[in-house]
Amino acid sequence: MNIDNVKLFKCLGDKSRLSILSNLINEPMYVELLAERLNLTPSTVSFHLKKMEEVGLVHSKKEQYYMIYEIDEQLLNMSLSDFIHQENSEEKMQREREEKYRSKVISSFFQYGKLKSIPVQRKKARIVYEEILKAFEPNRKYTEREVNIIIADYHDDFCTIRRDMISENLLEREGNIYWVKDNNSNDKNPLQYYLL
Questions:
Q1: DSSP character for 104?
Q2: CA 33 from centroid of its chain's CA atoms
Q3: Residue 124 and residue 121: Cα distance in Å, rounded?
Q4: Which CATH number is correct for 5-76, 2.30.30.60, 3.40.250.10, 1.10.10.10, 3.40.50.1220?
Q5: pLDDT tens, residue by residue, 144-187
Q6: Are 161 and 132 within 8 A, CB to CB?
């Protein structure tokens, strides 16, 4: 079941909608009957039912001249932990999509371990530079010449790549000394960064 949890809980944050749900738990009803029971206008009840239908709380079906509304029993029987688990599953799917995109970029721009060309698009260039960064050891200082030699193993234009890796905050520089930037303090996922 594909549910937007945020929209669902926002939809439930209304007293009239909770009253409508309370009545629909007992039996399916049409708009006019709900309006009469809740002392609301039919147009108000229709408005709330439409919002509830959008998030999957209720379903409608036509019976003779009336639209009958009923609760989605499957959704109603879900526990809070079910919603949390579903949210985690969506996050996992998002990470898988990001990883798939990353793999696609790497396979497009690298051939036999060499960079065919520097991507023009920033998010793709970021992925390429992160791949090159794997050749650097963390907590080790490098001279500019050493950095150039490592990058030159991937592409001849080591000056552009070195400069871009600094501007992308992948490498730190002080004078003629370089090192891998420690991004552990940054909570943002690098994959999210280049997919923005």
A1: H
A2: 41
A3: 6
A4: 1.10.10.10
A5: 999 999 999 999 999 999 999 999 999 999 999 999 987 654 44
A6: yes
